[in-house]
């Protein structure tokens, strides 16, 4: 156990509390919205692996300091690494992150993520795959990757494809934000607890001394409320979303939305069309293909495939959109990315296929996931 409590220089980025048989991990980069650095992912992996083997630990709670749970991986740090060194530095981060996600998705002990604030990208990867996800009135979920020239990764092709109807395609392609009530109703969250009750909930969870998911769930239920769903929620439009986002191609999805717009004046439809037209054409096409394949794959297969895709994106072939998206949205902040290819019709099926192929690069290998054993039934169901 001493090795886990050793104080490394970066230990303050993940705070560890031991309370009876519970362990509380707090992501602690509040000014950076708890975006994940390589050493944080590496530390989480080390802790989760150790806790799974430690019979004294029954439950792991993960939360974020400040107004975010976690806004994703630290893209700026990663793009810097790629620019000064090689895309392989980025690949190393993803290898570690996807390994952590696989362990969380198949974890033998209950993990409770307290999503009191922003949950985006890698933050969703570190929580949505776990057993319990507690949303609050402060929760804001989004997978905004297509606007950055990227695609929803971190196993999103697994969890988005399992949302009701084609709601996952809608979220992944448009990057739409959801609040806590919407997260609960579509299944991204398992519970909704008002933020004022979180400290009581945490206290109660730490006293449980059990790894039985039914007992943990019952404790969270005691503090749960039925949240109010806002009238303008996209979730109320599931029938339109299913009609449009079930189409085979991104072009057909946009045409279907434009047809809906002709039938009735609706700000929501026009905003949806606008967000699709602003996003990277390459990002949209690989995102749709990824979610469609995810519907038929287990979580491990999704991660192996997404790792291939990520490596192609970081290598900048065939499109360099991720670097342009980063420049326009996060660096220069002119919010005017020049995508290349610039239109959906210029992104050929062959280009899309190439993102799903193995890398033809010396020394590159497919993601190798750790062997898992003695898994509970709910974890086996994900394989």
Keywords:
383 residues; alpha/beta; 2-enoyl-CoA Hydratase, Chain A, domain 1; six-stranded mixed β-sheet; four-stranded mixed β-sheet; 47% helix; globular; ECH_dom; 3-hydroxyisobutyryl-CoA hydrolase activity; HIBYL-CoA-H; 3-hydroxyisobutyryl-CoA hydrolase; hydrolase
CATH architecture tag: Alpha-Beta Complex
- What is the helix/strand order? HEEHEEHHEEHEEHHEHEHHHHHHHHHH
Mean pLDDT: 95
- What's the count of strands? 10
Which structural category do the helix and sheet elements fall into?
alpha/beta
Distance between the termini: 31 Å
Fraction of helical residues: 40-55%
The largest pleated sheet is described as: 6 strands, mixed
- The Rg value, from CA coordinates, equals 20 Å
Query: Would you tell me which CATH topology applies?
Result: 2-enoyl-CoA Hydratase, Chain A, domain 1
In CATH, the homologous superfamily goes by the name 2-enoyl-CoA Hydratase, Chain A, domain 1
SS field, number of helical segments? 18
Q: So what's the CATH class? A: Alpha Beta
Function: Hydrolyzes 3-hydroxyisobutyryl-CoA (HIBYL-CoA), a saline catabolite. Has high activity toward isobutyryl-CoA. Could be an isobutyryl-CoA dehydrogenase that functions in valine catabolism.
Organism: Quercus rubra (Northern red oak)
GO molecular function: 3-hydroxyisobutyryl-CoA hydrolase activity
Domain Enoyl-CoA hydratase/isomerase: 23-356
Notes on the structure:
The chain has one domain: 2-enoyl-CoA Hydratase, Chain A, domain 1 (Alpha-Beta Complex), CATH 3.90.226.10. The protein has helices at about 1-5, 40-55, 75-85, 85-105, 120-125, 155-160, 165-175, 180-185, 200-205, 215-225, 240-245, 250-265, 265-280, 280-295, 300-315, 320-330, 350-355, 375-380; strands at about 15-20, 20-25, 60-65, 70, 110-115, 120, 130-135, 140, 180, 190. The protein has about 375 residues and is an alpha/beta fold. Helix 4 packs antiparallel against helix 15. It is globular. The protein is about 45% helix and about 10% strand. The chain is built from 18 helices and 10 strands. The strands form 2 sheets. It has a 6-stranded mixed sheet with strand order 1-2-3-5-7-10, sandwiched between helices. The mean pLDDT is about 95. GO terms for molecular function: 3-hydroxyisobutyryl-CoA hydrolase activity. This is 3-hydroxyisobutyryl-CoA hydrolase. Its EC number is 3.1.2.4. It comes from Quercus rubra. One of its GO terms (biological process) is L-valine catabolic process.
């Amino acid at each position: 156990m001493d090795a886990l409590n050793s104080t490394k220089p970066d230990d303050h980025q993940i705070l560890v509390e031991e309370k009876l048989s519970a362990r509380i991990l707090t992501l602690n980069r509040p000014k950076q919205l708890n975006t994940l650095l390589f050493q944080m992912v590496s530390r989480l992996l080390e802790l989760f692996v150790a806790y799974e083997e430690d019979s004294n630990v029954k439950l792991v709670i993960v939360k974020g300091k400040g107004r975010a749970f976690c806004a994703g991986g630290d893209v700026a740090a990663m793009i810097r690494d790629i620019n000064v060194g090689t895309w392989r530095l980025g690949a190393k981060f993803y290898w570690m992150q996807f390994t952590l996600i696989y362990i969380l998705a198949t974890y033998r002990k209950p993990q409770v993520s307290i999503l009191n604030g922003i949950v985006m990208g890698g933050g969703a990867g570190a929580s949505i795959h776990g057993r319990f996800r507690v949303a609050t009135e402060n929760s804001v979920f989004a997978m905004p990757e297509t606007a950055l020239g990227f695609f929803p990764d971190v196993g999103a092709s697994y969890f988005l494809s399992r949302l009701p109807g084609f709601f996952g395609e809608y979220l992944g392609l448009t990057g739409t934000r959801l609040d806590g009530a919407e997260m609960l109703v579509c299944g991204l969250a398992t519970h909704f607890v008002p933020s004022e009750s979180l400290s009581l909930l945490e206290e109660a969870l730490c006293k449980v001394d059990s790894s039985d998911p039914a007992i943990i769930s019952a404790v969270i239920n005691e503090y749960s409320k039925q949240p109010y769903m806002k009238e303008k929620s996209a979730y109320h439009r599931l029938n339109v979303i299913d009609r449009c986002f079930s189409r085979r191609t991104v072009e057909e999805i946009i045409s279907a939305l434009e047809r809906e717009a002709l039938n009735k004046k609706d700000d929501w439809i026009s905003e949806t069309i606008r967000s699709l037209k602003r996003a990277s054409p390459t990002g949209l096409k690989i995102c749709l293909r990824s979610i469609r394949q995810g519907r038929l794959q287990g979580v491990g297969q999704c991660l192996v495939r997404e790792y291939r895709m990520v490596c192609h994106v970081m290598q900048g072939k065939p499109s360099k959109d991720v670097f342009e998206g980063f420049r326009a949205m996060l660096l220069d902040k002119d919010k005017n990315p020049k995508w290349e290819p610039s239109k959906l019709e210029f992104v050929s099926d062959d280009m899309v296929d190439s993102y799903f192929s193995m890398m033809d690069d010396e020394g590159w290998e497919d993601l190798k996931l750790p062997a898992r054993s003695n898994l509970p039934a709910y974890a086996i169901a994900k394989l």
